[in-house]
Prior knowledge:
Layout: E1 9-12, E2 21-23, E3 28-30, H1 35-41, E4 52-54, E5 81-82, H2 131-134, E6 143-144, E7 153-157
Antiparallel strand pairs: 1-7, 2-7, 3-4, 5-6
Amino acid sequence: MAEPYLSEIKLVSFNFPPKGWAFCNGQFLPINQNQALFSLLGTTYGGNGQTTFALPNLQGRVPTHMGGEGFFLGQQGGEPSHTLSIQELPSHVHGASASTVDGDQVIATNNYLGPANQLYGAPANLTTMIPTEVSSVGGSQPHENMQPYLTLNFCIALAGIFPSRN
């Protein structure tokens, strides 16, 4: 393999970083021992900028190119699971069947409500509606929010050719 650019990131299918590379796991490195790498990364991924800086943390993350939809270098976002709020649900209605038969007559089969001739008449033979028709549904539990994936290791070059801008 040719000598990498310093801070180049590669995917590997094995469980260790090769010599001169480190996992992209957000670890902090001392600036005084990695000055060239710090000059490229700075504190974009963390660290105090005085004695330490951090490598990118790609554990459980999908990399994306900066720019476009307002993405900037080092930005993190997304979530592995999500609980929907009412504002996120599409507009919809929960209909109820009704009958055109007057309220003092037997209601047609499979209909729930009929119009009332005497709305405030004395109640008789009251019955509870089907609980599933009038009760809450859902459990406010988060759902998985992940695309299909294959887990590999991202590694960053700790040594190599310093990239030039031109």
